[in-house]
Predict the structure of 4-deoxy-L-threo-5-hexosulose-uronate ketol-isomerase.
Amino acid sequence: MQIRFQNSPKETAGMGTRDLRDNFLIEDLMKPGQLTWVYSHYDRVIVGGTIPGKTPVALDNPSELKADFFLQRREIGIINVGGKGSVHADGTRFEADRMDCVYLGKGTKEVSFASDDPTQPAVFYLLSSPAHQTYPNTRYTKEQASPVETGDALTSNKRVIYKYIHDKGISSSQLVMGLTILQPGSVWNTMPAHTHTRRMEAYFYFDIPEGHRVFHFMGEPAETRHLLVANHQAVLSPPWSIHSGAGTANYAFIWGMAGENYTYTDMDAVPIAGLK
Ligand SMILES: O=C[C@H](O)[C@@H](O)CC(=O)C(=O)O
Ligand SMILES: [Zn+2]
């Protein structure tokens, strides 16, 4: 498991492309038949991914956690962005079709991820945060995730936001998670941008067409930097950073947060004219 410590706003402002990418971009997250984990010290979230093949992939117990099992003191949100699959948790099978979300609470011991058809494998994005209370293991489909249309084709940001784990959806200790799908012709997410110093955020970009990229904007509002993001890559967003992207084509992304506040709408808006 890769460990990433925090970076101060001042340190980040002095970084070039390589350092920005090494600290904030997760490039090789989705590998066939194995789990990849990145432990971030921003609110101690762990970002993970796996593409199960013929045999299921079992949730492991990275030694860095010094735990009896992965979810002993944690909860996890799982969203499939590939072919049909399933998540098995302590004897219960949860269907996990494309864009379904499965939440597993603290204390869940035996977990595995499977693809229905290895030639069209499931692609599981995983986000885990520390938990101090157990909430029920739950599956939500995209349709259950209170879709909200936002943005406008005139500003190239028409999109639908699906909220799965939040104060009015699946209950959790601190995890908040969902996904956003850009309409064809729209390329901007989260503009006007915002920060929320009460919680970090991670973005996982998917359905970026072959050969295209997303320019992901980060940094303090008056000190922005960017990362060039390819399909199936993730970005760690510090609590003090904006997190917004513009694609060279339309795309989708999973957002996930943890920290002090559990309310999706808790954002400190940044006027576009205030960005530098
Ligand atoms: O704090 C919330 C997050 O940044 C995202 O939910 C924003 C987003 O999905 C969008 O505007 O498209
Ligand atoms: Zn945000």
